[in-house]
Amino acid sequence: MFARFLPRSPHAEIYTQIRSLLTASIESQYVRVNHDEKSMKFPQIWLRDNCCCPECFHEGTQSRIYKFKVGVRAERVQALDDKSVQIEWNDRHTSVYNLKWLGERDFSPENRQKYIDEFYRLKHVFWGKEDFKKECKEFEFDEVMGTNEGLRKWMEALAIYGVALINNSPKEKTTARRLADRVGFIRKTHYGEEFSVMSKPDAKNYAYLSAPLPLHTDLPYYEYKPGLNLLHCFTQSESSGGQSLTADAFYVAERLKQKDPKSYEILTKVPVDWNDIGSEGGGEGFHSIYRSPMINFDADGRYNRINLSIPQRDSHFTVKLEEVIPWYEAYWKLIEILKEETTTFKLKEGQLLTFNNLRVLHGRTGYDDNETNVRHIIGVYLDWDIVYARWRVLKSGK
Q: How buried is residue 320: exposed, middle or buried, by Cβ count under 10 Å (0-12/13-18/19+)?
């Protein structure tokens, strides 16, 4: 059957050898494509839905434009050459699929996992207290701002490890904004586009005190909370305090899972009420509420969000009465592990602490300001959607 499509040529034997590397056949509701020693199987309905001809696909917008009918099926398939497969459909349409394109979309478990771990979301590497110095990569500000390679490597480090330090940034109040603009654009919250963390006599947020700030993730009361936190150390406290605290909450959750599966399950299922009430900069007041468990997962079952903030945990706890005490018992067990895995260091002026706000817990020890030295951290947020969109373009070299 296959030989009938070979071109008639004095070099037919050579063409036969090339063509034998690629074959295609219909198998019930599927099309099988064999190339060398690799065999791929594709649903016919998926192939028809993803025809890339001008009638079905708009090249300029990279968008599907064709709506096929129910009952479409392949009537004939053939390898046009060693790089593409042609399918003739019962709706009188013909599609051609590039072998490389098919290979990138192979439904094999290995290929699907590779796409998820290397292009959709980079695979996480967890770290504990002892691993922090090794896993927290450091970059130069000029490197990230001035080269695409530096920018890409920094974003990769954040995606994989959840935290990275940027050194030797200029002492300018717009430094964090400049870094955010290098990626895309700032995620604005009701605290504005930029926020200053410093001791204030009329503080409306717990972070604006000089008291110790317990480990937390920012804005757990947002249903769609910012994914990345960029904190620029503009002025550091001259006192012994003001040290930064960090911990990998994904690692802590994994340790709890191994140590106490029942407590782990409770923290993944019982929703907690998170809230924030106040106003900022004399503007309109706000009252934000979101209900979500402490430990959350994405569609592939991987950790994708941790909610933890003592100040922002609401006194409303809208769960069944019998769920409350077990939740507290599970929560305390997680906190015990968290204390063991917290690392402490002091940011230097000109450093930026950048981290995944969905994963890395952060806080600080208390500190004392004086008349000439006021600890001042300037922060901005980014969304992971913006970071990954920029990273994929750089990765593709476009």
A: exposed
Mean pLDDT, rounded, for 289-306: 97
CA–chain centroid gap for 276, Å, is 25
CB 215 within 8 A of CB 247: yes
Two tokens, residue 396: 């593709």
Helix (H) or strand (E) holding 38: strand 38-43
**Per the structure block, which two tokens stand in for 151?**
């920018």
- Measured between alpha carbons, how far is 311 from 213 in angstroms, rounded to an integer? 10
Dist CA 42 CA 4 (whole Å):
24
pTM reported for the whole predicted model: 0.89
End-to-end CA distance of the chain: 42
* CA–CA distances in Å: residue 138 to residues 173, 244, 273: 21, 16, 36
Q: Would you say 169 and 232 are in contact if contact means Cβ atoms under 8 Å apart? A: yes
pLDDT digits over 214-260, tens only?
999 999 999 999 999 999 999 999 988 999 999 999 999 999 999 99
- The string of pLDDT tens digits covering residues 180-192 is 999 999 999 999 9
**b/e map 118-132, b = 16+ CB within 10 Å:** eeebbebebbbbebb
Please, what are the domains in the chain? 2-107 (3.30.2020.30), 120-396 (3.60.130.10)
